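Continuing the batch. This is chain 6 of the set; chains 1 through 5 are on the previous pages. Same settings as before, nothing changed between runs. Recording input and output for traceability.
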Amino acid sequence: MKKILSIVCAFFLLIGIGGCSSKSDEDILAFFEAFHNTLNAQSGHITAQIQMDSTDQSIIDIDLQMLQKEDLQIALSMDLESNGNRQEDFLQFYTRDGKTYLNSMGTTSQSVLSNLGIDASEKISVYDPFMNFSDSELCDLIESSSKDGNTYSLTIDPSLISTLLDSFGTVDVESSTLDAVIENETLSSFTLDVSGRQTLEEASENIRFTIDCQIEDLDQLQSISFPDDLETY
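Output for chain 6:
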């Protein structure tokens, strides 16, 4: 009887292990397609929080509106928190009518977009690092995947994230997971969680960062609200 119970327990353990490491190429490719479509949007509103934990904890809150109709319009606001000290409106950056406007902790300035190598009359797109990957190469980047409704959960190859974070090899990522919600073949939200270690010369410390992002009004945003005193920057 004990032997039979042992066999049954082992059977269900193997099923559980197999389920944890399962992988659906269809789901993986659906995510990358949504990722690509999101990057190509001509307008949208993104809010995100980046939390970094190492020796100290830092949090960056980002609010970004982007609109490309006749010219490029951007409204970016960042709040910063470190060691419990928070600075609201740490940085604000705007573009409109071919000009750029910067407010950094109360110090304002303005310039022109061409100084950044950007033509305001041309549509710009965000660089997609996976554009030239084949379907099989994209699937190889993911170690496991699961899907619950329109939520996709992926375990990413740690070596990929290590290389993206630091090409010098000082970062060793131990785990990297991504949960993404896909609606209308675009991302509506995602959470990326990465943990590992960073080594610089003789010093080594644990690192972890989380990016929690919400994406709204893709290709639906009609206008951006700018500060009334923008021209005085």
